[in-house]
């Protein structure tokens, strides 16, 4: 079966470039999960793939790194926001980063 086409939002490219300077292993972790999605497979439960709401309604995210049970997300808990397009034939990577940066900074006062 043919793989999904992979596309990146410009913000995602910047996120990946930044993260590669901070911790190169995150790139390997993201690539492993993306490869699963490109093959039309479901991510294993450990990734906690789920649909998003509000600002990102229509998008999904999966967790590359998670806090330990009972801990709150911090800047080391990385998620990938993505969207399937064209009847699932295209995978658009939107953002990659810490849960705090991607979901909580958007509400901080300017």
From TrEMBL:
The keyword Ion transport does not apply. GO terms for molecular function: RNA endonuclease activity. Keywords: Toxin-antitoxin system. Coiled coil: none annotated. GO terms for biological process: mRNA catabolic process; translational termination. NCBIfam families: RelE_StbE. This is Type II toxin-antitoxin system mRNA interferase toxin, RelE/StbE family. It comes from Lactobacillus crispatus.
């Amino acid at each position: 079966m043919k793989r999904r086409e992979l596309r990146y939002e410009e913000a995602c490219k910047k996120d990946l470039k930044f993260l590669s300077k901070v911790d190169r292993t995150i790139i390997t972790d993201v690539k492993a999960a993306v490869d699963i999605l490109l093959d039309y497979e479901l991510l294993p439960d450990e990734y906690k793939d789920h649909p998003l709401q509000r600002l990102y309604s229509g998008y999904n995210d999966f967790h590359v790194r998670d806090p330990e049970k009972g801990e709150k997300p911090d800047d080391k808990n990385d998620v990938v926001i993505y969207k399937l397009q064209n009847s699932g034939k295209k995978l658009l990577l939107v953002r990659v980063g810490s849960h705090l940066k991607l979901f909580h900074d958007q509400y901080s006062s300017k």
